[in-house]
Amino acid sequence: MTSHAAPALKGPGFPEFVALIAMMMALNALAIDAMLPALPAIGNALGVVAENSRQWIITAYLLGFGVAQLIYGPLADRYGRKPVLMVGLTLYVIFSVLAAFATSFELLIAARVATGVGAAALRVLAVSIVRDRYSGRTMARVMSLSFLVFLGIPILAPTLGQLVLTVAPWPWIFGVLALAGGAFMLWAAIRLPETLHPEDRMPIQIGRIAAAFRQAITHRQSIGYTLAMTAITGALFGFINSSQQIFFDVFEAPELFTTVFALVAGGIAVASLLNARLVERLGSRLISHTALLGFISMAAIHAGVTLAGHETIWTFGVLQGLTMFCFGLIAGNFGSMAMEPMGHIAGTASSAQGFISTTAGSTLGFLIGQQFNGSVVPMALGMVVMGVTALVFVLIAERGRLFRSRQLAPASAPG
Asked: What's the pTM?
């Protein structure tokens, strides 16, 4: 496959295509981060006594989001990308509305799981659609540009949630999700073409699906970078799960939460834009491997400052921002390298990789968040551990060598 769009495809040009993919990813970020400022209000309204239990509002969504990816990939490889996307968006909208009307914490958690199930289609289809049209460094550039918007949402989402709370009760945050999902559904229905070529459609046969999943989880490059991405995702979710309590309870500065959170998330966005400009020239490996070493170093320095008792809201913002800047240079590249040898089974491979990285990553992040003890130490140490774990998996994927540029032959199609 070349690195250019197939000429037979009609539809949006490159900028609008990137924008469509970015908004598919952004709807996921919005569903995670917009409710962070509302966690205390939701907990108080629904009788949640233990503060750490509020983290289930985030994790429940992520678990539904992760598990359902196993379903959407085979469906997208059989019926096409667009019909499956419309089903997922419909679920996203319906259950966001139901979450707004939840009268108990249990009902809210159930609605959040179901919203995540719908959103899983967005993740699988975003990666699959990009892989249908691009490969190699061009694919990494598209993913980085899309990731820029995806990661720009966390800059705005907590502020959006806070703004909603100033004019309306917390259920309206879920109402905003429903409205955003409905608007994107209309845009995609009109402008997004079907990108799966007829000759690439895979029948839903257990044997073929199992063979495709087996390739995705046994190919050294695919599984190595998938597990590395899982560890880095765990670090990100550990930060997200802990952030509200850190600002409210540790620093006692809830009024600065959205501002500092935006600065930290902004580091990821700036890094993604930088990566999009450099990746075709320098290559995914050089950039992401260097960034991973930087991630570990920054996380270790942050942990040292915290353990020494010198943490302030400003050291937190700077050191966490630098760590997340490194994350922004890692995420899109790791995802692209995991998918690179899987072009012929892009939907199923995306499902397998997304299932692993999201379910395991959200579980790791939840475990980090549950260690919150009134200090930043558990989160900081968790990020160090996750960074080192990611490095181990990268070394496995690359047979012990970092930074080298190489082209791998794609795995053979499942029989």
From this structure: 0.80
